[in-house]
Amino acid sequence: MGKITGFMEYGRRDPGYRPVTERVKDFNPVELRNGAKEIQEQAARCMDCGTPFCHGAGCPLENVIPEFNEQVYQGRWKEALDILLSTDNFPEFTGRICPAVCEGSCVLGINKDPVTIRQIELEIIEKGFELGYVQPRPPAKRLDQRVAVIGSGPAGLVVADTLNHLGYGVVVYDLAEQPGGILRYGIPEFKLAKWVIDRRLRLMEAEGVVFENQVRVGEDISYHYLKNRFDAVCLSGGAREARDLKVPGRDLKGIHFAMDFLIQQNRRLGNETMDPALDILATGKKVLVIGGGDTGSDCVGTSIRQGAAEVRQVEIMPEPPPTRSPSTPWPMWPNMLRVSSSHKEGGQRQWSVATKEFTGKDGEVKAVKLVGVEWVTPAGGGRPVMKEKTGSEFTIEADLVLLAMGFSGPGRNKLVEDLEIRTVAGAIGRDSRNMTNIPGVFVAGDMTHGASLVVRAMMDGRRAAAGIDAYLGDQRGA
């Protein structure tokens, strides 16, 4: 342990954000970075716990957090980087967009503010790039076996990166114009700058990974094509089926899925060709975002930057408490109110609200009828049940409605249907190796475990890569 009294001497210091008046005028990253000295002081707050719950109960990747904190405090950035990369393929992603589940399990967080683990992680990888420690590492020996990865989101990239370093030939296919999946197209530029993704992709290409874009697997190329050229296939297309809202007026123009709105803005910033007639823009409009999660928050920030006249966000669930709820005691991920950088930029939030109807004029949405709800626990116990509050109906004017209510599964996939791959509750079924019912066809990420955090998709990518390596090792008698 670098500094025994560090957790008593230093308080938590978050880097903060660019001023609101400045950042709402552009799509540049909003979060600042602490300097190396401040990061080392934050690492000194780590208590080197006998049982590091941040590592086990907290981080899905099982990052070895106390050990890299120690190296950071001592100024040994290369050693810290080696420890971090042993479990996390892409710390530059998780260090920017992970909600820091590990910090919810930090022992220091029982009676003080937890260690700033996410910021420390980000500084480690950025120092690695700045000091030249991160360089292409192509495998010393290439195996004869090849793997096709379908989808270039966080899970697919992790599968490709891990298997490539093991010596397999890897080709990543994606239907979009550029690789990155939700990292590039779903997450706003102001949270994850796309040069960060491009830097990693260039590194992966230098190490031997091949990317093939604008390819619809199952249509442009068949499974027969893949089977003849690859020894294994991994599906990692994400959870693309957005939850819809089946209420009267849903067919009015001006009502869109949140991800369509966010993808357009990222494509716009990426100078990709789009049909102007299909533009979804908040400029000058009264925007209503339905759904209170991260996607909804991203819609708020994007709408503000596009110059919306008004932005409101509603959520059907009750407002979380301002501090950790007794229902989620330490070391569980705390149920508590979270205010994103976008929420601090403007707009209104309302909780315990359900949508009843969309109304409009000349085929365009103009208003939304809503009702207040309460969540009542049945007399016999069990899950709370939603009930509308009598006399709580109200109407909000809106000429752009964005549905941000999560995702129900991967949606239709021709390859999955043609091969009759087994599904479970709409998700792709798998065994303990992440292999589907079709030998040699694997699955990773949101396609199989449902929409979740980027860090969990990355964890599942590592699990799938291990399964593929074991399967191909059996095939070659290793």
Task: Describe what this molecule looks like in 3D.
- With 478 residues, the chain is of the alpha/beta class.
- The chain has three domains: 6-130, Fumarate Reductase Iron-sulfur Protein, Chain B, domain 2 (Orthogonal Bundle), CATH 1.10.1060.10; 146-240 and 408-476, FAD/NAD(P)-binding domain; 244-405, FAD/NAD(P)-binding domain (3-Layer(bba) Sandwich).
- It has 18 helices and 18 strands.
- It has helices at 6-9, 20-23, 36-44, 53-58, 65-73, 77-85, 91-97, 101-104, 117-130, 154-165, 182-185, 194-206, 223-229, 258-269, 294-305, 414-419, 446-449, 454-476, and strands at 146-150, 169-174, 210-213, 232-235, 241-242, 255-257, 286-290, 310-314, 348-350, 353-361, 364-376, 385-388, 394-397, 400-403, 407-409, 423-424, 427-428, 441-443.
- The protein has a five-stranded parallel beta sheet with strand order 3-2-1-4-18, with helices on both faces. Strands 6-14-7-8-9 form a five-stranded parallel beta sheet. Strands 10, 11, 12 and 13 form a four-stranded antiparallel beta sheet that branches.
- Helix 15 links the parallel strand 7 (286-290) and strand 8.
- Helix 14 packs across helix 15 (294-305).
- It is globular, with a radius of gyration of 23 Å.
- The two termini are 41 Å apart.
